[in-house]
Amino acid sequence: MIAQATLPSGPPPAQRKPHRIAVFADTHDAYPQRLTGLLAEADELWHLGDVCAPDVLAALAALGRPLLVVRGNNDAHLAWPLTLRLERASRVFHLEHIAPRRAPAGAEFVLCGHTHVPEDVTDPGGVRWLNPGCISYPRGQGCSFGWLTIAATGEVDWRIVAL
To answer: What is the CATH number of the domain that holds 143?
Structure first.
């Protein structure tokens, strides 16, 4: 018997709802209480490390959204991976707490924390490097997180939200 491919149902990609991902880093055991309300509209939550105590994520996990975490240099929770490679709408994302020296092969976007400073830079090879800043202890600027919005067509929008 030959397996048949199932065609996707629903509206064409251009008419599908964009996928919204809240990206944050460096909670260091604390974050503004109003953050949970701001993240309620997210489809996913990506934490880029330095959570410190895992129980600080309880209220965020209670939102019922997928919560992906990479381990930072101040995290001892070994169940969290050091890196994650994710694909959304055919776009490839690499998540890591401390930015690697160069983008991993095939990555179109590298998301990292650690510096506590928001960033959006595209390197000469076309890889976009994104940092949401920090939730708890900013350096030079206020606390912030990022909204990563991915259209079904693959277009990516990145916005920093000041807290």
So the answer is: 3.60.21.10
